[in-house]
């Protein structure tokens, strides 16, 4: 597997992956996190344009995608009901998903991001038990609660 930046012409592949991810999440008790439309194509195109959208490729096929950026993320400036493991510079991962064809693809993506910065923050919905298990399995520690710009609550994790 290899990680590389997403190309603009791959937008439709990502849109399809996220459609499948929403179906998977809903069928596993998490219908609210991404609803029926998140992330919108414009968000994905903005991620690509800003250079923060990545894909995981195996045998010339995109099998996973995620947002990665180093630096302050407004969502993580305040944390409630806990605290971050440290206040050192960090990277963030958002909107991670895989197509489910290659076992371990999401872990591969998380490890790639962690190796880039050595201090990684991420959040997920309380109902996203699959993601919580993935984070636990990959050495992330629960840190507390953060709130998105729209007021939605998320549980926050960090790996150092």
UniProtKB/TrEMBL annotation:
Record has Transferase as a keyword: yes
InterPro entries in the record: Acyl_CoA_acyltransferase
Organism of origin: [Ruminococcus] lactaris
Keyword Transferase part of the UniProt annotation: yes
Keywords for the protein's UniProt record, in alphabetical order: Transferase
UniProt GO MF annotations: transferase activity
Record's protein name: GNAT family N-acetyltransferase
């Amino acid at each position: 597997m290899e990680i590389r930046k997403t190309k603009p012409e791959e937008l439709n592949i990502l849109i399809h992956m996220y459609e499948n991810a929403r179906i998977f999440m809903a069928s596993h008790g998490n219908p609210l996190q991404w609803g029926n439309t998140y992330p919108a194509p414009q968000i994905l195109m903005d991620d690509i344009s800003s250079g923060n959208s990545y894909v995981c490729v195996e045998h010339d096929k995109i099998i996973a995608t995620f947002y990665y950026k180093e630096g302050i993320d407004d969502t993580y400036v305040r944390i409630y009901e806990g605290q971050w493991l440290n206040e050192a510079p960090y990277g963030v991962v958002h909107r991670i998903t895989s197509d489910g064809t290659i076992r371990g693809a999401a872990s591969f993506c998380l490890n790639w991001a962690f190796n880039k910065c050595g201090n990684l923050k991420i959040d997920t919905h309380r109902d996203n038990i699959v993601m919580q298990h993935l984070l636990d399995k990959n050495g992330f520690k629960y840190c507390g609660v953060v709130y998105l710009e729209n007021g939605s609550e998320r549980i926050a994790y960090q790996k150092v």
